[in-house]
Amino acid sequence: MPLAPKAAAPENNLTRIEVVGAILHRPVSLKPRPQQMPFLDLLSPDRVHTNFKATGKGDLLQRLSVLLAADTSESGLILDALGAREALGSTGLGRGVAIPHGRIEGLSKARAAFVRLASPLEFDAIDGQPVDLVAALAVPAQFNDQHLKLLGELAEIFSDAEMTNALREAADGSVLHAKLAEFAGTRLRDSAWTD
């Protein structure tokens, strides 16, 4: 069996990149570029709130369903999906963070909301701690892979202690959104997607 050839010189790599570009009918860059996270692509500034008030977990899910819905008919479907997911097990990740989410049959497009609660709520989180940072997702039922990617992105955000501290200290919703955008800009991503 012949030995593998040595790594090609940089000029040979450029030739290969140019060939790939020609096949794809577009230029291809060697430099990775920062992309927004898919979560941020779905998070409109009007769905980002600080001092969000809720009296309990059920009330929070109901208020999030209204925030995520395009109209009143969707809010009931979203609430049902969020509730059904919570019935399987709490989406409280611990360290004051929850990611209520659901896939909804007939939903036309994916949506996200992010709230910092006025007062932490009991959420049956895995560490037993109350929740104050909540990222909510409503996605069309057929968005299996995208749904998992979104949850992965959120896990990355919330696993960064510096980031969660910054979210807790943000003065208002626009600063919260800006902090999420800043975090996204520091990470290298695949191409952003929207539905």
Would you write up a description of this structure?
45% of the residues lie in helices and 18% in strands. The protein is built from 7 helices and 6 strands, in the order H-H-E-H-H-E-E-E-E-E-H-H-H. The chain has helices spanning 10-24, 38-42, 57-68, 72-88, 144-159, 161-169, 173-185; strands at 48-52, 92-94, 97-98, 101-104, 111-121, 131-140. Strands 1, 2, 3, 4, 5 and 6 form a 6-stranded mixed beta sheet that branches. Helix 3 (57-68) packs across helix 4 (72-88). The model is unreliable at 5-36 and 188-195 (pLDDT under 50).
Summarize the structure.
The chain has 195 residues and is α/β, with parallel strands linked by helices. It has helices at residues 10-24, 38-42, 57-68, 72-88, 144-159, 161-169, 173-185; strands spanning 48-52, 92-94, 97-98, 101-104, 111-121, 131-140.
CATH class placement? Alpha Beta
Helix content: 40-55%
Approximately what portion of the residues adopt beta-strand conformation? Answer: 15-25%
C-alpha-based Rg, rounded: 20 Å
Computed structural class = alpha/beta
Mean pLDDT: 80
In total, the number of strands is: 6
Tell me the CATH superfamily.
Answer: Mannitol-specific EII, Chain A
